[in-house]
Amino acid sequence: MAISRRSFLKGSGLAAASTLVAPALLRHPFIGQAFADTIGDRYFLSIFLDGGNDGFNTVIPVDNGGATMRAAYDAARSTGTDGLNIAPSALAATLIGVDPGSGCQLAFHPALAPLKTLYDAGKVAVVQGCGYSRPTLSHEASRMAWETGTPPGLNSGTGWMGRYLAANYGGSDIPGVCIRGEVAGELRQNATSVLAARRMRSLRFPYDGDFGDDVARKRAAFLGLYESASTAALPIAEYLGTSGVATLLATESYAGLHDLYTSGRPGPNQAYEDLNLNLARNLREAAKVIYGITQGVPNVHARVMQCATGGYDTHSDQGAANADGRHYELLNELAASLSLFYADCNDMGVADKLVVMVWSEFGRRVEQNDGGTDHGTQYPVFILGGGVTGGVYGRHPNINESALSDDGNTVYSQAAADPFRSTDMRDVYGTILKHWLGMPHQQILDDVLTLDGGDPAERWTQENFDMGFLV
User: Fold this and answer.
1) Among 103, 107, 69, 75, which Cα is nearest to 88's?
2) What is the CA radius of gyration of the chain?
3) 264, 312, 268, 287: which is closest to 199 by C-alpha?
4) Domains in the chain: how many in total?
5) At 127, is the secondary structure helix, strand, or coil?
6) Which segments of 29-160 are extended strands (E)?
7) Is residue 196, in this structure, part of any structural domain at all?
8) DSSP secondary structure string, 307-328?
9) For residue 127, what are the β-bridge partners?
């Protein structure tokens, strides 16, 4: 009888968190193997906008449609000094689809013009009104809710993507890479390996810092100890030995991706240099991993990646359509970096094998403060890639003052007849898991995402993993 990696780990009690944090902290050894059959020859990248992106000035109502969307926007956001109101005339070049709920015309913030080009090519899905039941306005608690895929108070400590990895990979796999100094919360779990490094070239096996000219002997000693342990009769010793070998080899392989990319792709590498943006530099690291896989580099098999960019906590100096406004600069960095990364992947021949999800911990309040916006709830998520069916999905939240909560935020709703019905974050995740990562519908509910109990008009009690942006 065939035994899966997962059942072996459970049966043997070897449920170990194997996470390598570059450049010096080894939390647990791991083994690199080929990717599992679930994702196949595909890639998934998650980009976190840290701070809470103002969704109402990211995807903007241009007219009223069949409701009062533009009138409500104009009432909440002023013009003039410190005003955040972006006039319809400034949105003429970035029109996208029509809101399915209100029928109003929508547009991107003018800073997202490079993303508009990809949207017009059918490569961007805008998923509106994303949130979760029982929302919190705390950065930490809301970020944890999005990372874990569970509302506050119900968090399990593992990430939604981490639970997918745990269900489909074992301790001998390296299915994920985080372009940062620690493993992102959405990939955390206790069954398989995730690599974390701000830059691939900085990744090193954590030898001690003394006697730097003796690395060759240290390498030989570690390799001998691990190889000896790998032949032991005890399963845990064998596991630690084989994982130790793979740890050492993988650190060497991933570190080499920098030179491989810069020599093999000088044009795109220079384009990232010329753009000179932090997010673009992070995305270049993801491109190095993808390029390494396309070139068959041994011990490089991670297909799930994550990176982050900050500055979205725009309580002041947010700006409207002015190019020197903080929000303009942030969104322009996002759009320019994504556009270059997509072009790089397209030139590598892997754009159709790529899906990127762009998310934040929450949106901002509808009504502006003096020069910015306070913490909010729902906002639009972007799904980008050659495998995406572009367009507008979900419904724009109801921003009429009479419909807001006591703290001035839009209200999460799952009422079927509500023209402003919210998109639960778990439906976004479930669609990605089912239609891109190949996870069976019921297994998603069993192993990754848990339905809410309670009032079906106010809680996520009925899943929709077929939203349409991935088919």
Assistant:
1) 107
2) 23
3) 287
4) 1
5) strand
6) 43-49, 59-61, 95-98, 105-108, 124-131
7) yes
8) EEE-----SSS--SS-TTSHHH
9) 381, 393
User: What average pLDDT does the chain have?
Assistant: 89
Q: Are 49 and 357 in contact (CB under 8 A)?
A: no
457 within domain boundaries: no
80-83: long-range pairs with CB below 8 Å, 24+: 82/370, 82/371, 83/320, 83/368
Burial group, residue 276, by CB count within 10 angstroms (0-12, 13-18, 19+): exposed
Residue 325 near residue 318 (C-beta atoms within 8 A): yes
Termini Cα distance of the chain: 34
Q: Which of 302, 230, 289 is nearest to 29 (CA)?
A: 230
Cα–Cα distance measured from residue 355 to residue 345, given in angstroms and rounded to the nearest whole number: 11
Average pLDDT over residues 281-290: 98
**Stretch 273-300: mean pLDDT:** 97
pLDDT tens for 378-396 read 999 999 999 999 999 999 9
Domain extent, residue 241, equals 5-447
Return d(Cα 61, Cα 67) in angstroms, integer.
Answer: 11
Each residue of 64-85: pLDDT tens digit? 999 999 999 999 999 999 999 9
How far does Cα 68 stand from its chain's mean position? Answer: 33
Q: Is residue 453 part of a domain?
A: no
247 domain-assigned: yes
Q: Which residues pair with 375 in a beta bridge?
A: 364
Size (the chain), residues: 471
pLDDT tens track for 95-142: 999 999 999 999 999 999 999 999 999 999 999 999 999 999 999 999
User: Over 60: is that where the pLDDT of 413 sits?
Assistant: yes
Using 50, 70 and 90 to split pLDDT, how confident is the model at 1? very low
CA–CA gap between residue 213 and residue 71 (Å, rounded): 70
Is the link from the previous residue into 23 a cis peptide, with omega within 30 of 0? yes
Does the structure show a pLDDT above 80 at 14?
no
Backbone φ and ψ of 177, nearest 5°: -135, 130
Output the six-digit token pair for 24. 């010096």
